[in-house]
Specification:
174 residues, mainly alpha, 8 helices, 83% helix, 0% strand, binds protoporphyrin IX containing FE
Length: 174
């Protein structure tokens, strides 16, 4: 491990640059699309459940969002890889309960479970465009509702824990 730290240490700031730019892309790349397209479109269908135009617009926005969230999902593994490399390169210890301990608990207990669900409903079994191409519109509507529920549950966690993690990482309060 000592050798790895010696090899990586000279690149610490370059790795940190990659970490912070990945964190920025992960944190904010879908903010406007979510706030100004997805939320209004889903709410307008909730208020007008039989309006075909509003449903078509919601479906179009959600399929585009599934595609656009790729930015976030490329950034997340980069965050974890660069973060782990910095742990080694910087010789960070886990003695005591520090900013780093709490930050990693947030990553493990909040961000990782959230991303596992998000990967599945955006790119794998729950990808709306792929479901529409199978013609199974009952499954399509079911995953629209699952994704909307996911948004409603995950948004408060995102609003609280992302700024908190930035604060812990930059200010290092304890
Ligand atoms: C497995 C996941 C992660 C690990 C192991 C990790 C680890 C680290 C380490 C060791 C540093 C360097 C601290 C320093 O040199 O001052 C750092 C910096 C940073 N991390 Fe992470 N991190 C992870 C995930 C995250 C996440 C999810 C976020 C944001 C939501 C984040 C935001 C930051 C920021 C903003 C910095 C720069 C702090 C500064 O400039 O002083 N990290 N991270």
């Amino acid at each position: 491990m000592e050798t790895l730290t010696q090899i990586l240490a000279p690149w610490y700031m370059q790795i940190k640059f990659l970490h912070v730019i990945s964190v920025a892309m992960w944190s904010f790349s879908t903010a406007v699309a979510y706030r100004d397209y997805i939320v209004p479109a889903f709410k307008s269908v909730e208020h007008n459940p039989n309006d075909e135009t509003r449903i078509a617009r919601r479906n179009d926005f959600m399929e585009r969002f599934d595609s656009g969230v790729v930015l976030e999902h490329v950034a997340f593994p980069l965050i974890v890889i660069t973060g782990l490399i910095m742990l080694i390169a910087g010789g960070w210890s886990f003695e005591g309960f520090t900013w780093l301990t709490l930050k990693l608990w947030i990553v493990v207990l909040v961000f990782v479970p959230m991303e596992v669900v998000d990967y599945y409903i955006s790119h794998f079994g729950g990808q709306k465009l792929r479901i529409r191409r199978t013609g199974d519109m009952a499954r399509y509507e079911r995953y629209m509702q699952i994704h909307w529920l996911f948004f409603k549950i995950s948004t408060p966690f995102i609003i609280i824990f992302i700024p908190l993690t930035y604060y812990l990482a930059i200010v290092k309060p304890f």
